[in-house]
Amino acid sequence: MVSLPEFDVPVEKLEELIPPDLLRKELSLPERTELDVIRHFTRLSQKNFSVDTHFYPLGSCTMKYNPKVNEDIARLPGFAGAHPLQAAAQSQGILELLYNFEKYMCAIFGFDAFTLQPAAGAHGELTALMMMKAYHRDMGQAARVKVVIPDSSHGTNPASVAMVGFTPVVIKSNGRGNINVDELKKAVGEDTAGLMLTNPNTLGLFDEHILEVAEIVHKSGGLLYYDGANANANLGICRPADLGFDVAHFNLHKTFSTPHGGGGPGSGPVGVNKKLEPFLPIPRVVKENSHYALRVTHYDKSIGRVHSFHGNIGVIIKAYAYILSLGAEGLKKVSEKAVENANYMMNKLKEHYYLPYDRQCQHEFVISAKWQKEKYGIKALDIAKRLIDYGFHPPTIYFPLIVEESLMIEPTESESQETLDAFCEAMIKIAKECETDPELVKSAPHDTPVRRLDETKAAREPVLSWKTGG
């Protein structure tokens, strides 16, 4: 058993443990009745924007509806009350769940093994790249230090590459939004550690040459890494491992039912094929006869721990419940509906906004305010602000960077046709307002408690007191 520090300190002794400069000298709080307090916080909750109250088409973030039953399951006392330092004999239920969840993830995405430790997508990227680095060193190829990244990648990709000590090499996409195969051939060589690729990419497009891309990378001796942030488009349709990917991370908080946003909670499990399995983080959950255990031995090549314990268990439990409730056919329908919704919206809007890649999209699509900017001086930011007046959360704007004045829209599978039509109608009205009353759009929003902010000033000079200027 691990001994924990003594926290039972008498109240009169607490002040001695706190540095004097951190002690409050006086307490000044406003006097309010219980009714006033209740009304205050109720009004705040009504102003809050969430997927439970409004459409949230935030591209590349999969702001889907999360069934409340999964929240209830994660809060069951046996799960919520467990402690990660409990002995394995006292944690058989959670260990069995983790073991089974890894097997489900292997079946869904085609990999041979998973680690559930990474606490977010970028953490998963870091973990995968650390394993790639360990693999090349183990093969006596430490000179492989370059990772190729397409210009349509997620912004965390080059950052993660640099954190591990690799050098990012960015190559351009072609006219159809695929990775440029000719540029890829020039970029890879004996110093290539691998390629990081999101598929479908941040343009919402499935790479039409993915098998050729995999062959080029593997022939150079590199590894193929799959950024699984957009896996909501592929469930039950295709598996990354079958396309040639060696390692991948997946955002449970995007694909498998967990509230998303506000910096957490998240979970980014990483799947690997056989050649990378020896480098997975420890401990590994194993089944020994009829019991489950955490094993740290027999993994001499492991990169070690990447999380203080075994992952964000609450998130994993919700994902486990989501997979069990839908099953194989249900997961496939999730992706089919997400793709159908995105293509429906894209085709309704492409006559009113510039569509840089006019081809079938996957779970999301990118349109542009290029026409509006050229004709009326109206930017994507202005259109996003005007959408707020219509009761919609704006989509992602100015990303991916390779599309001028981009608006990235992801409806997910959760939304009805009525909701999609209402959003498209608002977007079409805004396009017409750009023609008839451009100042109306440029000065939006008009119906919010706070009008348009100076966002640069707000970021650099935030007011962090309930008293303005305090």
Describe the structure.
There is one protein chain. By secondary structure, the chain is an alpha/beta fold. The chain has a domain at 69-325: Type I PLP-dependent aspartate aminotransferase-like (Major domain) (Aspartate Aminotransferase, domain 2, 3-Layer(aba) Sandwich), CATH 3.40.640. The chain is 39% helix and 11% strand. The protein is built from 16 helices and 12 strands. It has helices spanning 11-17, 34-47, 68-74, 77-80, 92-109, 121-138, 156-164, 181-187, 210-219, 252-255, 313-349, 370-376, 380-389, 417-436, 438-442, 455-460, and strands at 113-115, 146-150, 167-171, 192-198, 223-228, 247-250, 270-272, 284-288, 291-295, 365-368, 396-397, 406-409. The strands form 3 sheets. It has a 7-stranded mixed β-sheet, sandwiched between helices. A 3-stranded antiparallel β-sheet has the order 10-12-11, with helices on one face. The chain has a two-stranded antiparallel sheet with strand order 8-9. Helix 5 packs parallel to helix 11, helix 6 crosses helix 7 and helix 11 (313-349) packs across helix 14. The two termini are 49 Å apart. Residues 1-5 have low confidence and may be disordered.
**Which blocks of ≥5 consecutive residues have pLDDT under 50?**
1-5
Query: Secondary-structure element order, as H and E?
Result: HHHHHEHEHEHEHEEHEEEHEHHEEHHH
Largest sheet descriptor: 7 strands, mixed
Shape: globular
Give the helix/strand class: alpha/beta
Secondary structure tally, helices: 16
**DSSP, total strands:** 12
* Spatial ordering of strands, largest sheet: 1-7-6-5-4-2-3
- CA gyration radius, whole angstroms: 25 Å
CATH class assignment of the domain at 69-325: Alpha Beta
